[in-house]
Design goal:
Length: 129
């Protein structure tokens, strides 16, 4: 298995990887059906191979078709991607990243979400994080 590349993913590669994560395992035609304004079937297959070469996916053969599966569990991939964003755009500062999310005009948190965040912050304080 190839080690996962840290090359940034293009928009389509990210969409394809997201589709495979959503489905859990997927053929090229199943991925194509998940994409907005989908490219051709052969383009999807080519991008799946690229994602496999980069180490993000692996495939299994099921009869005549390849079925693609993520190589990294979604939660681990999410943590890695988030760490990369925090390091790249916020100089490693979790505080700055959270502040940017909260200050975003898109961040409309419901009272129960704010309460859950407050509880997580209180737990982190107790644990000394």
């Amino acid at each position: 298995m190839t080690a996962m590349s840290h090359d940034p993913l293009g928009r389509r590669e990210r969409q394809i990887l997201d589709a495979v994560y959503r489905l859990g395992r997927a053929s090229a035609s199943e991925v194509q059906a998940q994409l907005p304004d989908p490219p051709s079937y052969s383009a999807v297959r080519a991008m799946l191979r690229i994602l496999e070469d980069k180490g993000h996916l692996r495939h299994e053969t099921e009869g005549p078709r390849y079925v693609y599966i993520p190589t990294v569990p979604r939660d681990r991939a999410r943590r890695s991607a988030l760490r990369h964003v925090v390091d790249t755009f916020f100089s490693g500062s979790v505080e700055q990243a959270v502040a940017a999310l909260l200050e975003s005009s898109d961040a409309r948190l419901r009272p129960e979400e704010l309460e859950r965040l407050s509880e997580r912050i209180a737990r982190a304080r107790k644990q000394g994080r």
